[in-house]
Structure formats: structure tokens, C-alpha cells
Amino acid sequence: MNPGEKPCKIAGIAVGLLALSLVPAWAGCKSAMSSPQWPEVARAISTAQLCEQLPVGPNRTSGFKVVSADVCSTGANLASVKATALLTCETGDNALFQMAPVEGKVVATVSLDVGACKITDTHVEIDGEIGSLLSELPDTQDFARNWAQSQLSRLCQLQ
């Protein structure tokens, strides 16, 4: 470790959620995608099921690709993560009516207390057609926060 680097573990997310894993943070911001822990972060992110929150329509997550994930140290044991992902939702195979897949960009910002392994704040923005569908649901933000905290708690236990 280089002088001046603060060793700590922080959660990396994707969006909407959503995803979280532990990655090292330094003063300033770093890309979580370049860390050795990124494969574990990517696995956690791949379990996000934002589309499944929709009662009908394209309610199956068929793609969730993280395009950026930046981790910033914001103080002693505090960090923030901002992740951008591309989300694709499609209709399940057993649906009565098939719909074309819909896509959107998810930007998730998460603040956390690394020492307590606790998320202190989250905000998820979803654009595109899927964003208009998900934003109509009252529990999208709560779902994203609860899912992210569960992933962070699971990964903290592994460390």
C-alpha cells in the first residue's frame, strides 16, 4: 500500500441498484472496475432484479451491464459509490402477451459507513422507457436500498 492511502473496504454498486461488494478506497475517487475485487462486485450486481418489480409487461431482467463504478472516500470510514449501468427488461417466456424489450440507463449513488458495513443513503435514477415504468412504482428506491444493504451485509460477512 502506498503512503497516504487509507485501507478500507467499501461497497460498489450498479443500480438500481444496485450492487454491492467490498473494494478498497483511497483518498479521492477510483474506479471500482479496476480493483481486484471487481469480479465479486460484478457477481453481486448481476443478482439485481429491478425489472421483476414490475407487476406486468417487461418484468424480467435480461441484461444489467455496469459501464462505470467510481468509489470516493468521503472521510474516516465513509465512502460514496456512483455507478452507471445499462438495464434491459423483457417479457417472460410464459407471458400471455409478448412485448419488445425495453432499455434504460441506471445511475445509482450510494453513501456508506464502511466501518459499520451500513448504507446511509441511496438514490437511484432510471431513464428511458423502463425508467418511466419503474418510477411509477412507489417502492423502487426502497427496493434498491434494501437489496444493496443485503448484498453489502452478505459481503461484509465474507471478509
Describe this structure in words.
Helix content is 22%, strand content 38%. The relative contact order is 0.22. A hairpin with a 4-residue loop joins strand 6 (102-113) and strand 7. With 159 residues, the protein is α+β, with helices and mostly antiparallel strands. It contains three helices and seven strands. The protein is elongated and about 50 Å long.
Low-confidence region ranges: 1-27
SSE run? EEEHEEEEHH
Shape: elongated
**Tally of DSSP β-strands:** 7
Give the strand line-up of the largest sheet: 3-4-5-6-7
Gyration radius from CA atoms, angstroms: 16 Å
- Approximate helicity band: 10-25%
Beta-strand residue percentage: 35-45%
Distance between the termini: 18 Å
Average pLDDT, all residues: 76
So how many helices? 3
Largest sheet features: 5 strands, antiparallel
Task: Summarize the helices and strands and which ones pair or pack.
Layout: E1 9-11, E2 22-24, E3 28-31, H1 38-45, E4 60-75, E5 78-90, E6 102-113, E7 118-126, H2 128-135, H3 140-158
Antiparallel strand pairs: 1-2, 3-4, 4-5, 5-6, 6-7
Give the gist of this structure.
The protein is an alpha+beta fold. It contains 3 helices and 7 strands.
Tags for this model:
two-stranded antiparallel ribbon, 3 helices, alpha+beta, 38% strand
